[in-house]
Amino acid sequence: xxxxLAQYACGVRWKNLPEKIQLExxxxxxxxxxxxxxxxxxPSMEAAMRGTLAMHAKGETPILGRSEKAxxxxxxxxxxxSSSVQTFDDTHLATITHPTGPVAAAALSAAxxxxxxxxxxxxxxxxxxxxxxxxxxxxxxxxxxxxGSHIGWFMTGLSGGIGAAAAVGRLLNRSDTQMTxxxxxxxxxxxxxxxxxxxxxxALVPGVAARNGLTSAYLAMENxxxxxxxxxxxxxxxxxxxxxAMASLITIDLDVDYEMMRNAYKPYPxxxxxxxxxxxxxxxxxxxxVNFEEIEQIVLRVHxxxxxxxxxxxxxxxxxxxxxxxxxxxxxxVHKKAGLDEGTLDSVMDPRVRAVQEKVQIEIDPDLAxxxxxxxxxxxxxxxxxxxxxxxTGSITNPMTNEExxxxxxALCEPILGADQSQELLDFCLHLSDKTDIADIFKPSVISA
Length: 449
Hints:
The chain has 19 helices and 8 strands. The protein has helices at about 1-10, 20-40, 45-55, 70-85, 100-115, 125-145, 155-170, 175-190, 200-220, 235-240, 250, 275-285, 305-310, 320, 325-335, 345-350, 350-355, 400-415, 420-430; strands spanning about 60, 70, 90, 265, 295-300, 360-365, 375-380, 385-390. The radius of gyration is 21 Å and the shape is globular.
């Protein structure tokens, strides 16, 4: 399987990609850039930056939204961590993988190094590498999920490094054999547990995948080899965490049916599995007849994944709240919004929000799709109001528009970069395919020292 994926990765050409795939790669990079800049000044990122620079003080690779530089591998880890830390990054809904972070962060570190060495990466080549990485990552995740892997495995950590290695290998112009080694080396480092949820470590797992993928590609470039059975062979990734019989899902209709088109961009900064519930509660909260102070009970019907991943009640900090369906129900009913402000510690500890949480009853419905939910509010006077969501905002059946993604971009970047610099960066991202050096993305996206 590693060899087959290597052949695919080396063979993709930008000009041969369908127009919808070309456009989607730009959307993916735009969303990731916004998330990386937006997360660059969070406590998690500050701590990660201090810890990293304490080990390796010098480097030449810039980091979006920061003034510091790091070495290539550390920059890949930090940039991906930054894009993940606010739980605003994209999600392949079928597998709960966050695909763009590891691929984009690793590829951007490599592209900067290539530019510094006098071999700049043009935008279309970078985007083609992004497509390769996203497609491979999502397909490996699909096979892992289909084999019945434990929900505790953090899927991005299992597949993200493989996608990142393929993307970086593309930029380094590796042979099929070296690409095979890179993919195998990344598979050998697959890791990550969802017990990290609710702590800073939730963003470390994707960051490690980015670093591992970059490292794998550079080692393979120098002919550090690996087995070609590390994905689907005996004691390989699929056998260890899932079922090797699912390996065929990785390559079926490859280059014809693009799994990356089933990737979704988040309108709300929290676990995407609870977005349908948020939509339902937003609808109810905007009903003039519904006052949160008059609520007797809220009954939510949700997909099983909502409670597998976001079961926390009465969270005590922002990171716990990111993965709490209870918090977001309470915050939405009180504030009638679901943005970054509603995930702050002030909102988490707001007694009004916590009081609403106590009134929430969850019903798990396995017949619901992952873009569906319903919420019923019963008021103290006996009146009931119900909202049913069949196509949650940001899902693949109701995706965010380009205008909505641009608004999200500005909302995340302007507090860090200012309005003018954010607009310059947005324009750069919107026209990525025309750029002669992708490393120029750092000019409007870093902070002066």
